[in-house]
Amino acid sequence: MLTKLLIPFRVFINLTWAITTTAIIGISVVIVGIFKILLPFRFAQHFFSNLGNAVFRLWAYCMSFLFQLTQPMHWHIEGDLELHKKGWYMIMANHRSWVDVFVLMHLARRNMPMPRFFLKRQLLWVPIVGWGCWTLDMPFMRRYSKEALEKKPHLKGRDIETTTRSCAKFRHIPTTVVNFCEGTRFTPEKHKKKQSPYRYLLPPKAGGTAFSLQIMGDQFEAILDITIAYPGKNNRPVLWHLLSGQLRNVYVNIRTLPISDDLIGDYSTDDAFKAHFQKWLNQRWHEKDAIIEQLQDEINQAHQLR
Questions:
Q1: Per-residue confidence (pLDDT) for residue 265, from 0 to 100
Q2: Domain CATH number, residue 247
Q3: CA-based nearest residue to 48, from 61, 64, 31
Q4: Which residue segment(s) compose the domain that 154 sits in?
Q5: How many Å apart are CA 187 and CA 202, to the nearest integer?
Q6: What is the spatial distance between Cα 221 and Cα 184, in angstroms, rounded to a whole number?
């Protein structure tokens, strides 16, 4: 019934659902965080971390429902998610849109440890959302320009320190660490500026992924190589397309990769390992690009047959 509504009504319903559920669940997570601060004991910390994680999973279910609330949404998922909630995994994903976050929430809601994203430090000061992410031990990264590093060389390596501290916390609670390896969302302008060798992707940055594996490689059970695509007219959807009910199809390809010994090393000091890891990640990105190109070609052929 709701799928027949005009766009303004869809936006109102979807936005109300998203804001209300996020506010209620976010406040609940913040309350859990207050108890974590007041009771800095190992048992209490473990209990409240698990409680916060359970509340976070509820938010994932709410965001998953958002895809179906006012639109006939179709999921096309290749691969499998035969995982378990008590494991540890690392996701390598491309980044097309902010909608990608909700896609990963949909995938994680049932059989995957709840994801932890590397966030920009500015998000820490967003009321409720930022505080909730802090409670969930999500790492907040501060980007430094080349000019800033030249003026203050001691800032170099701060992100590595943040990654190390955050991953250390993840050892005590089942977690899926998410790496959007491109470091930013895809746009044609960024694609041209970076002179990307890929048709649908930006060049991947290997550092964050390599450091995560270096710190937690012995604990991760597998790498989940996830390719997200929105073939067709809205191939880079913004939140408006989701809220207005104009997002019809989401394609996800999932490949479960073993973590071999040659993927774990000192990325910052070992030049041979650094070159090897960059080559390995670039190869994964070539395969992702081919997957998206195939999906786009299939969509174009389907439209031509109509």
A1: 93
A2: 3.40.1130
A3: 31
A4: 72-305
A5: 9
A6: 26
- The answer to the question of residue 34 being in a domain is no
Q: Which residue has the tokens 């609330």?
A: 69
At residue 153, the pLDDT reads 67
Q: What is the pLDDT of residue 110?
A: 87
Nearest to 51 by CA among 138, 140, 136: 136
| Contact call for residues 244 and 69 (beta carbons, < 8 A) | no
Structure tokens at 304: 């031509």
Please tell me the total count of domains within the chain: 1
Tell me whether residue 161 is in a domain. yes
Q: What is the mean pLDDT of each run of 10 residues along the chain (306 residues)?
A: 76 94 94 91 88 94 92 85 82 93 92 86 81 84 63 65 72 88 92 94 92 87 93 75 87 93 90 96 96 81 56
pLDDT of the residue at 135: 87
* Nearest one of 86, 87, 104 to 95, comparing CA atoms: 104
In a domain, 17, yes or no: no
Which residues, at least 6 apart from 82, have a Cβ–Cβ distance to it below 8 Å? Answer: 111
d(CA 201, CA 230): 13
- Asked if residue 42 belongs to a domain, the reply is no
Please report, in angstroms and rounded to a whole number, the separation of the first and last CA atoms in the chain.
27
Other C-beta atoms closer than 10 Å to the C-beta of 37 total 9
Instruction: Write the single-letter amino acid at 222.
Output: A
Distance between CA atoms of residues 91 and 223, nearest Å: 6
Dist. CA 113–CA 89, nearest whole Å: 8
pLDDT at 237: 79
Distance CA 173, CA 47 (A): 10
